[in-house]
Amino acid sequence: MPASPTQTLALEDFLKLPYLEESPAWEYVDGVALQKPMPKTRHSFLQKRLLNAIDNSSNQYTALPELRCTFGGRSIVPDVAVIAWNRIQINQAGEPEDNFTQAPDWTIEILSPEQQANRVIDNILHCLRHGCKLGWMLDPDDRSIIIFAPHQEPEVCRGDRQLIAIAGIDLTLSAEQVFDWLKIDRR
C-alpha cells in the first residue's frame, strides 16, 4: 500500500519501498513519500521534444527522462534531468550505475494541472542548493517558463524571450517556440 502524505519515514526506508518504481514516480521530501501526478499528453509531448532538443545541442551532456536523483536527504524524479556525461558513474561492464546520487546539472519540470507549483519549485530550489546549475519550470496553461539559477531571482519567460541554457549546450529557444511544439499539424 502506498505511503500516505502524513506518514514519515527515513530515506533508506523509502528507497526500499516495493512500489517505489511504479508509475507515476514517487518522490521523498522532508520524510514523506509523495507520488507525482500521471503525465498527460501535453506533458509527454513537451518532455519528448525537450529531450531531443537538448541531446541534439550538446556532446557534453545528456538529457534523461524521469531519472531518480537521490541527494541531500531527498529522492526526486525531475521530468528531465540534464547531466554531464563525465558525471555519470560507470560500472565494470561499462554501463551506467543504476543509482544517481547527485543533483542534475539542469533540472526541468513540466507543471501538470494536478501538481502543486510550490512543491515543484521546492524541488528545483533543492537541486540548486546542491550544485545544480539551472532549473526550468514549464507551465503549459500559462505558456510560461520560470528560469531558476543559483543566487539569482527567478525569471518568468513568455513569448519570444530567449531562454538560457547551461554552458556546453548550444540551445536557442524561446518560450513561444517551446509551447509551439504542442501544435499538431494534421496535413
Automatic annotation (TrEMBL):
InterPro entries: Nuclease_put_TT1808 (IPR012296), Restrct_endonuc-II-like (IPR011335), Uma2 (IPR008538). Residues 11-169 form the Putative restriction endonuclease domain. Coiled coil: none annotated. This is Putative restriction endonuclease domain-containing protein. Transmembrane segments: none annotated.
